[in-house]
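Hi D.,

Good news: the full-assembly prediction came through. Inputs first.
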Amino acid sequence: MSEATSNASKRYGLLGRFHDADALIVAIRTLREEGYRELEAFSPYPVEELNEALGVRSRWLTVVTLIASLAVAAGTYWMVWYSAAVDYPFVVGGKPLHSWPPFALIAFVLAILSAVVTAFLGMLCGNRLPRLYHPAFNITMFERASNDAFFLLTNVGTLTHDEIESLRSRLTDLGAEDVQEVPP
Amino acid sequence: MKRLLTYLSSSGTSAVRRFRQQPPLVLTLQVALALSLLGALMAWSTLLQAWLTAWVLLAFLPLGAMALLMVHGLTGGAWGDESHLVWRNLVASMPLFALALLPLLLGLDVLFPWMAAHDTLPDVVRHKRFYLNEPFFIARTLLYLMIWVGLSLGLTRPPSSRSSTPRWYAPGLIVWALTVTFFCYDWLMSLEPTFYSDIYGLEIMAICVVSVLALGLFISVVSLRPSIRLDLANLWLAVLLGWAFLAFSQLIIVWSANLPFEISWYLNRSEGAWLWVGRLSTLLFLAIPFAMLLPTAAKRRSGWLRLTAAIALVGYLLHMHWLVWPSFTTSGWAFLFGPIAIVTLATAALWWIGDTRRHALIAFRSVEEKYHDGT
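Then the structure:
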């Protein structure tokens, strides 16, 4: 606390609390139109329109997952083929050395595994998780983000004092029930 | 065919002129039916084979729609609330398909090898004769058809009389699964009576639902909201993968065991052109729709889904041919009567469901305009 008062000019952002998801979406859309780009939203449950309102058009995770699964599938198939047909040719049950049905099965299974692992790890990286500290944790009301309140966090690192004050009143105009400063 | 008749009629015979006054659908139906009857006289066995192929190809669609309606009745969800019209209109054709299967009962001896004299059958088929025999087979078929007609009548009743989900949906779905399973054991699997696969019934159930989802989306996608399109496309993708899993399981089990009686089913289907029909149908029915159904944004677009559905339906057509025809020893007439049987049954089904339902199925575009005006 004493740190925050002594360093009053340094703020991470403004945290606005909204009553429902619709108000939050409207506020995000309006602020984005007005040129605020560094917005973060928090809600107790997934809100479908949120990504679109925030302008999150991230495709890299799906693309990376697809590429990883295809690469693992091809690699696995090659590995099985190489070991069964080239390196140690061994006839099993009178089947051809290069028998695609079981090979495809193993390639498919490992492709699914790699897709799941890539998507999970990519999600963690993309969300910068696990994250033990976030400036918003300093605000007591933020606990309600996992209960009944919707939050909009606006980064004000580059704004002047007056701009921050106008943003504060803007948030109130847009229906924020409470606006608090978030220390870094 | 129609153009030829129009040409003939202009040359003036009164009979043809009378034809011309019929609506095009009835005209097509009459001509196709006449050609089918001609086929019955000229090439009885080939016509029966063509009829059975056309029947499973088309009747699996309303069968799949029944499952969708009952599943939705039990689980609810916006996807079904907004798309039930198309499934219901498709289900309405079931009684016609029930009637259309009856003529085949006259030709069981032509269609099914197990109808041959007991002594000429291989051992493995002789042991199945307690199940595969004419009276029992006919009784079972009539039972399936009666159940399906009953379900279709129940499902096409006007929605006003059904404020809550009827209690019979859950047992209905169980009965549906059992009848579809045993129907395809009887009418498809026993075409090659030495072949046996546990998974066959599940595979057919999945294919019924996959194909009707493709057809329903093709018909009605423009009239649905983007989020509903996404839901239906995801359902389609899920059932499609389920089908692929089942079909591949059957392949790998039969392939691993490599028993002469079972593997011959696949050998028949990888001979000559069938190998390529099989590959092409896998590509069109599974691989391309799978890839096209991956991107989420595209699944909200009607044009994209309609294209995907059209590709999948062509794949479905090929797949059902691949599934049924290689079981038969057939004649060159198949090239003629195969398409004729399909046209006959398709037009008959459209004629059967009546003007209102038919127009509702064909005229989904007008609903789209309404939707766009409304919002």
